[in-house]
Amino acid sequence: MRLALVLAGRYPDLRGSQVLVQQLADGIRGRGHAVHLVTYGAVASGRPGPRAGRIVRDLGLVARLWRTVRREAIDLIHAHNYEAAIASLVVGRATGRPVVYHGHNALAEELPLYFRARLARALAHRLGRLLDAHVPRRADFCIAVTEELGDILRRRGVAARDLTCIAPAAAPRDAAAHRPRGSSAALVCYAGNLDGYQNLGFLLQSFARVRARVPAARLVLVTHAAPGALRRAVGPGGEIVRAVSYDDVRERSGFPMKLLNYMAAGKAIVASAGSAKGLRDGVTGRIVPDGDQAAFAAAVVELLSDAAARARLGAAARHAVEDPRAWDGVLDRIETVYRNVLAARSAARTDPEASAPDGLGVAAE
């Protein structure tokens, strides 16, 4: 197969979507397919979220994708997130290529987090709902990174037979790159970007509770982003460390894939329920109710005082992501989606009245 993987973002970059797309491209290419990445390219980094300047880049993305599809005789377009999906649908309709939409989030939930004013947040939520309802269902098939996102997309109009949920897994090279290292028993680390949807205010407030009980505790925020105003919000015991490469931070967002990195590092994890995808409470980490600062702080304090529990949870977490069959399973299911979408498109050309084959549901196992 000749595939175009499309992402409306700077590339290469240390952000989560870019890292995920790169790993998928490498994995799919390793199975003998021709893969072409279509992105903004190595443009200047800017603040995340919606802004007027992105419109020009999105138009450029459409033109770049059009040229790639025509020049490389692309069989299928695999679009990640909304701007890439819109560009891909435009080109796909014009060139007769099928489009697979890969959803990393629900825009109605994420878009308001880039605004502070109540009215702006409300309008962003409504726009997000509109896009959630109209963009994914126009693709030939949808992949959601979580069951929760899959449920949202189904409620917004995506047919159940046209959607499957495929949770990301740690690529083997990532699991191998993370080797457990000794560290201070009172060190708490966050690695990731500093965007609003990360809810770092909750983390900082929870850590203040931790410091009240464990004065020696330290919080380290490892990020590639400029800290800006957040630097002033980091209280006693906290520091921000700038990472200059993916090897320094290995952060991935969207699906909270930073958890895969924490797990691969063999570290004990505390996570709120909404972000605890892939964790089992008491087995591979500690899970606390969403928004409960006291519970979050208590779990951190408990682990800081119990080295044996930290070691047990960290070892179990690392073991859970070391199995290369998990990553192979992700690639198997994505290849199945590709084959079935192309088969359905071929059948439709032969018999325009024919419906999509039931085989589309194979990837939903």
Report on the architecture of this protein.
The chain has 365 residues and is an alpha/beta fold. It is built from 14 helices and eleven strands. A six-stranded parallel beta sheet has the order 2-1-3-4-5-6, sandwiched between helices. Helix 8 links the parallel strand 7 and strand 8. Helix 8 crosses helix 12 and helix 11 crosses helix 13. It is globular and about 70 Å long. The two termini are 23 Å apart. The C terminus is likely disordered.
What structural class is derived from the secondary structure elements? alpha/beta
Instruction: Give the terminus-to-terminus CA distance.
Output: 23 Å
Q: Quote the average pLDDT.
A: 82
Order of helices and strands, N to C? EHEHEHEHHEHEHEHEHEHHEEHHH
What is the 3D shape? Answer: globular
Share in helix: 40-55%
Largest sheet: 6 strands, parallel
The count of strands amounts to 11
Strands in their spatial order, largest beta sheet? 2-1-3-4-5-6
The poorly predicted ranges are 244-254, 356-365
Q: What is the strand content?
A: 5-15%
Treating each run of at least 4 consecutive H or I residues as one helix, how many helices?
Answer: 14
Radius of gyration: 21 Å
Topology:
Elements: E1 2-7, H1 16-29, E2 34-38, H2 53-72, E3 76-80, H3 82-95, E4 99-103, H4 107-110, H5 118-134, E5 141-144, H6 147-155, E6 163-165, H7 172-177, E7 187-191, H8 200-213, E8 218-223, H9 230-233, E9 238-242, H10 246-249, H11 258-264, E10 270-272, E11 286-288, H12 293-304, H13 307-322, H14 324-350
Parallel strand pairs: 1-2, 1-3, 3-4, 4-5, 5-6, 7-8, 8-9, 10-11
